[in-house]
Amino acid sequence: MKRQDKSSELTPLDIVQQIVSERISQVSGSEAVSLSDISAMVGRISAETIRAPQNLPITDNVAVDGYAIRLSALEANPKEWFPVKATVRAGHPFAGHIAAGEAAAVYTGAVLPEGVDCVFMHEDCLLKDGQVQIQISGRAGLNIRPAGENLRQGEICIADGDIVTPQDIGQLAAAGIAQLKVRSKLKIALLSTGDEVASAFQTAAGNAQILDANGPMLQGLLAADGFEAASAQIIPDNREALSNAFSKALDKADVLITSGGASDGLEDHTQAAMHDNGVESLFWRIAMKPGRPMAVGQKAGKLVICLPGNPVAVYVCYKLLVAGWLKQMLGMPAKPLLRAELPVGFQHKKRADRAEFLRARVETSDNGQAQLQINGRKGAGVISSLQGADGLVEIPIGITEVQVGDRLPFLPFRERGL
User: Please, what is the end-to-end C-alpha distance for the chain in angstroms?
Assistant: First the structure.
């Protein structure tokens, strides 16, 4: 693996993250969502911290079907036959007391009867004439779920700023929480730019135009992360038209995301449109491929995110950067992306002054080990290279050449995770 000195020409990815994260303004507003409305709750950002109102479970309960006894009685006489005093099922607690030298037949989920401290699975017991003999040794607490095993009273069920997941919903339900306050949804506006871009919902005008893939793809990416945005408006390569579109979007939206026109060509007007609308530029040109001409600005706490026009760049920039910023605007703390080093099964050369992210799939090598292979063709306009990819392989700044067997960071897509 060859390396060269880093270049200061472009802004590195980690610096970009820091610049924007430090300037993000959290959007106020929240709403209460009922636990019964799962689709309205999952994927949202919690606006409060909920603590367990009591121990979960409330009492000690039985983890297996079997027989409960007092361990000291078994240790005093391992061959003891214990008379079965009671049968205790889940939902039907036993009001009495099991004395030393007695046993209770118990079922999974039942409240542990008073007086016993261990439970033996029925297959480890011998039953005869209403008495049970334990066939193995035990220990105190065996096969018992203690009160508070899940959560102790006062421990956090969900924290302010957490994304509400199905497991969080399960925890809230277990704690008897009927509703949760979540952040109000961001208002997000989308613009696709370019004279050559036509709506994906109509026929392109001959060979001179292409159908807009970025707008619908961004809508899908946002929806998968619990956000919403209307269909992208298509704006021609005209400074005045783009500036007017910026103005209208910023009047109503918390975030404006554009695709195309982010470079410095004659028909690239996003920088001018930001200037015309008093948007402060936080950075422009990132040391990353794909995604180099990306720019971000801010006005009165609102974010303007100008993505490149190539669909793969749009996807990669959203995954690596934009999704996290949107979540931060709703109060979620910044978190590093999951990276795992894996060996690669390909060769590749690149410039030293930028990180490069290739679409990759995980395959099994001849020696049975997982390795990364490039998925599809490499072009930034090749949407098909995203289909079937397991994630992104990162070739960091400074590395100019990759050889088979080199280990590189792999960022998995959620589609291949659990």
Answer: 32
What local confidence, expressed as pLDDT, does residue 274 receive? 95
| E runs forming strands in 70-169 | 81-88, 103-106, 118-121, 125-128, 131-134, 144-145, 156-158
Where are the strands (E) in 118-242, listed by range?
118-121, 125-128, 131-134, 144-145, 156-158, 179-183, 188-193, 197-198, 210-211, 233-235
Question: Which amino acid is located at 393 in the chain?
Answer: V
- Residue 7 has what pLDDT? 41
List of residues 6+ apart from 334 with CB closer than 8 A: 17, 21, 324, 328
For the beta carbon of residue 118, count every other beta carbon within 10 angstroms.
21
Helices (H), 204-310: 214-224, 239-252, 270-276
CB atoms < 10 A from the CB of 368, how many? 6
Q: For the chain, list the domains and their CATH numbers.
A: 2-27+185-329 (3.40.980.10), 34-55+152-183 (3.90.105.10), 61-145 (2.170.190.11), 340-416 (2.40.340.10)
Which has more pLDDT, 93 or 416?
93
CA distance 29 to 3: 48
pLDDT exceeds cutoff 60 at 153? yes
Question: Tokens standing for 183?
Answer: 């952040």
Q: Where are the alpha helices (DSSP H) in 135-285?
A: 166-174, 214-224, 239-252, 270-276
Average pLDDT, the chain: 93
Per-residue burial over 80-107, b if 16 or more Cβ lie within 10 Å, else e, is bbbebbbebbeeeebeeebeebbbbbbb
Q: What is the pLDDT of residue 262?
A: 78
H/E segment holding residue 32: strand 30-34
Question: Nearest to residue 84, comparing CAs of 64, 102, 60?
Answer: 102
Q: What is the rounded distance in angstroms from the CA atom of residue 225 to the CA atom of residue 110?
A: 40
- Range of weakest confidence among 36-40, 77-81, 198-202, 238-242: 198-202
pLDDT for the residue numbered 6: 43
Structure tokens at 211: 């159908």
